[in-house]
């Protein structure tokens, strides 16, 4: 026989308070971290800091080559990981049946998502830099980051596509559409908001990684012209400035720029998704 300690109304109020407090703490932590970085870093940020080259290993000067390197590796990671992740999700949800291969793919994706970033970096050094002969380059770094972003994009896309009501597919088949026509004209457009969220999560993880690219991208202070040139993304530059005691002021400035870039990507992407949703809903 169970004993009720609280009435349902009191339990409801307690849980509401717990959830509200949890949300407030989460928001406060986010504001505290971002606010601290911006307060410490924005005084060092200027147009000269953004568009000039570093001097004396980054002790003076700016971070323009690092911004270019960051855009390079992030773009490469996105171009490689996005179609692979979405394609794998479509296969798993629309074509594959529950068998050993599907279980192996899911297990592999979950394993990839839990591997430490430093392990990805060591693999990139061994496979991309040495075995494939790509050398220390933004291409090698981008491929390493693509491997890291892939499981996130795949898992979120798979959940999103699975959540699309079966009535969408049945209606499309009823109009005479083929399976592929149903996928790219009905299922994928309906799943775009969730897929974009997965891509954003994967790319923001990639753009913020230092350990993964440390062994693959090199540490050049020059602007990379091609994808085969070495570079130094912002997270790696921040790590070097802070750990080697080169310039704490420039380290905070670099961190502030990195945070602003991540926030800009997130805000613009969410705005585009909301606009797309309003369009397909006829608002």
TrEMBL record:
Membrane association type: Multi-pass membrane protein
InterPro entries from the UniProt entry: MetI-like, MetI-like_sf, Phosphate_PstA
Family named by the database record: Belongs to the binding-protein-dependent transport system permease family. CysTW subfamily.
Alphabetic keyword roster: Cell membrane, Membrane, Transmembrane, Transmembrane helix, Transport
UniProt-annotated location(s): Cell membrane
Transmembrane segments: 14-39, 63-91, 112-139, 183-203, 210-228, 251-273
An annotated GO BP: phosphate ion transmembrane transport
Stated name of the protein: Phosphate transport system permease protein PstA
Record carries keyword Metal-binding: no
GO MF terms held by the record: phosphate transmembrane transporter activity
ABC transmembrane type-1 domain ranges (all copies): 67-269
CC terms in the record's Gene Ontology section: plasma membrane
PROSITE patterns given in the database record: ABC_TM1
